[in-house]
Design brief:
- By secondary structure, the chain is mainly α.
- It has a domain at about 1-120.
- The chain has eleven helices and five strands, in the order αααβααααββαααββα.
- The chain has helices at about 1-25, 45-80, 85-120, 145-150, 165-180, 185-205, 215-225, 245-255, 270-285, 305-310, 350-360; strands spanning about 135, 230-235, 240-245, 320-325, 335-340.
- The strands form two sheets. It has a three-stranded mixed sheet with strand order 1-3-2.
- Helix 1 runs antiparallel to helix 2 and helix 5 (about 165-180) runs antiparallel to helix 6.
- The radius of gyration is 36 Å and the shape is elongated.
- Residues about 350-370 have low confidence and may be disordered.
């Protein structure tokens, strides 16, 4: 009886050592010789396939070892429950397991060292970037690191320094308030958001995301932003970054607005007041006497109660002018294309298109007498 249990305790130590060895090999992308099959062909594709099959064999061997370990531990626990042993014998059995684990691990350490030394050393791959992604038309010269940062383009998105948990909570509360949800629906929504946030935090704690920007990269960006002698703008076509002297940029922009007419005052407050008055009159108006009020249909009809709330213009500003360079026309001395940004002007916002879209689909033709 004791000899059989002694063998099981010894096997448990050896199996744990083998599991540790295979996990270490997987961590360092090493494949022991026993998992390779005899090569028949010597080609790049066959080598890739053989490496793939060897990794599959390692996973299968690892599953087999876990199954053996479970079986051995189950047999030991059931044997000890039926026939308990004294404490001194149990201590000797645990020392047997520890000794078998150490002996097997020492033998595996030599194998691991040989595999690690025979692994070909690959130098780190340098970061590649397009050499023509930056067009420097300024009088200033830039270092290679600065050109590398600028070559990422305006479409590059730096990784977040931390997960925006507070933004998700604020967005959830704002949606609950704007949608007028009941207390039960609000509680269900909050519970779902909290569970999802907890899942994301556990995932990030297990595998934190890597930042795609180093601290020195942020320092270079701040230095480029603080330089007032240059201006960095995107190209008209293609994801290309263009660097200009600020004086040259202003001269090009001034040439494009020679035909513009200057006005005496800013019409933005008047337009804002006119738009809000029109919306208010639409909200409080009633349909003509010959037209019956249609039943409310949220899919087709714009609710008048939320018209002012969604489309009212507040703190509007006039359009501002800027330009982007036409880098694909070097024969014309890189002309400038002016852009009038009216995103903060009255009557221009992102809510009306999504609000009026169902109404726009419903109306096919507007009679002339309604215009």
């Amino acid at each position: 009886m004791n000899d059989g249990i002694w063998k099981y305790f010894k096997n448990i130590g050896e199996i744990k050592a083998r599991i540790y060895f295979i996990n270490k090999c997987k961590q360092f992308h090493l494949i022991p010789k026993g998992f390779h099959s005899k090569p028949v062909l010597r080609s790049m594709k066959s080598n890739h396939l053989e490496t793939r099959f060897a990794k599959i064999r390692m996973n299968e061997r690892l599953n087999q070892l876990h199954a053996k370990l479970f079986t051995a531990e189950l047999h030991v626990s059931t044997s000890l429950q039926s026939n308990p042993l004294p404490e001194d014998i149990m201590q000797d059995l645990h020392e047997t397991t520890f000794k078998a684990y150490n002996d097997t691990t020492m033998a595996h350490c030599r194998k691991f060292h040989d595999l690690l030394s025979s692994k070909p050393h690959r130098p780190p791959t340098p970061m590649r970037y397009k050499l023509d992604a930056v067009l420097n038309l300024s009088s200033k010269t830039f270092t290679r690191d600065e050109l590398r940062i600028l070559s990422l383009g305006f479409n590059f998105r730096p990784s977040l320094p931390a997960f925006p948990t507070q933004d998700y909570i604020l967005a959830t509360e704002a949606h609950i308030k704007s949608a007028n949800l009941s207390s039960e629906d609000s509680a269900l929504l909050r519970n779902a958001v909290v569970n999802e946030l907890e899942r994301i935090h556990k995932k990030l704690a297990y595998k934190p995301p890597r930042s795609n920007f180093l601290p020195r990269d942020w320092a270079l960006i701040k230095a480029l932003k603080a330089d007032d002698s240059i201006i960095i703008i995107p190209a008209d076509k293609g994801n290309k970054t263009i660097i200009l002297d600020k004086l040259d940029y202003l001269k090009k922009l001034e040439q494009r607005i020679l035909t513009h007419r200057k006005i005496d005052s800013d019409p933005t407050p008047q337009r804002e007041h006119k738009l809000n008055s029109t919306l208010k009159s639409i909200q409080h108006s009633s349909p003509p006497y010959y037209q019956k009020p249609s039943p409310p249909d949220p899919d087709l009809i714009l609710p008048r109660s939320c018209l002012i709330k969604r489309n009212k213009a507040t703190f509007s500003s006039s359009a501002w002018l800027h330009g982007i360079l036409k880098a694909h026309k070097p024969h014309e001395d890189f002309p400038l294309r002016e852009i009038s940004d009216s995103s903060n002007c009255p009557g221009h916002c992102q809510n009306p298109p999504s609000t009026i879209r169902p109404l726009h689909r419903a109306i096919k033709h507007i009679p002339q007498k309604w215009v």
